[in-house]
Amino acid sequence: MAEYKDLTEYRYLDSPIPMLNIGWLGTELGTQGVQTPPPPSLLLSLGKEVNVPRSLTLGSHECEFCLREGHAPETGNGEIHIYAPSGRTYSAPTLVLHYVKAHQYTPPAEFTAASTAPGAPDWDDRAEILCSILKDESGDPAWQVNALIDLPNWHDSRAYQAIAEAATNEEITLTADYELARSLSRFWARSHSIDVSVYEKLPPNVRAHLDMGKIQAHLQT
Q1: Strand order in the sheet with 89-93
Q2: Are 96 and 107 in contact (CB under 8 A)?
Q3: CB 89 within 8 A of CB 19
Q4: Of 7, 43, 152, 195, whose CB has the highest number of CB atoms within 10 Å?
């Protein structure tokens, strides 16, 4: 895995959205910055994000700090994307949570603020780009998966409509069934209702991944 200074331009993989590097760490640059205890809200946010990695690649990366210290290394694959209300977008490897917990890495304050910000970002060019990626049948499959994961960050009917339309794309329902189901679950739980017209057309493999417990809990509130 490449090593980059925090808040430099993301170049690890092709990205249709400009992003800034966070936590792409290695032994050459070290953990960067001032080491301070992370707020619990950051650990909670990162814990949720790393469970659904974006931009997965072949193989995995071993933590260089663990190797240097003679420990069995933590491994990671993929990255997380944080969409700040300010319009900035950050990319961090999934190992970022490990770096924070095990190696006292402190991300820049603006990243921590974006990761723990309440509410949702306003509709903007980033959301438009993600929607267009989903609608483009010849689009990058990896970024179509990313769009499924990331669009629910916007509490907007246009984001849901793009996800609902993606549910009719046979290739997406076959190759990104988990991510599609997760996104639909988030929207339906948030709206306290299930879109029956979409649900009835979902193939069994997508339905199997729906978080019905979460949806039902919200329906009862």
Answers
A1: 20-21, 89-93, 79-83
A2: yes
A3: yes
A4: 152
In the prediction, which pLDDT does 221 show? 54
CA–CA gap between residue 137 and residue 155 (Å, rounded) = 24
39: which 2 tokens? 């707020």
Residue 78's CB is within 10 A of a number of other CB atoms, namely 18
Size of the chain, expressed as the number of residues it contains: 221
Q: 106 phi and psi, to 5 degrees?
A: -115, 110
List, in sequence order, every residue forming a beta bridge with 9; answer none if it has no partner: 20
Task: Determine which helix (DSSP H) or strand (DSSP E) holds 109, and give its type and residue range.
Answer: helix 109-115
Cα–Cα distance for residue pair 96/53, rounded to 1 Å: 12
Confidence class of residue 137 from pLDDT cuts 50, 70 and 90? Answer: confident
Residue 11: CA count within 13 A, CB half-sphere: 6
**Contact by Cβ (8 Å): 100, 42:** yes
Other C-beta atoms closer than 10 Å to the C-beta of 81 total: 22
Which tens digit of pLDDT belongs to each residue from 17-72?
999 999 999 999 998 877 888 899 999 999 999 999 999 998 899 999 999 999 89
> Do residues 205 and 177 lie in contact, with contact meaning Cβ atoms separated by under 8 Å?
yes
Tokens representing 132 are 């267009």
Residue 39 to residue 115: CA distance in whole angstroms: 11
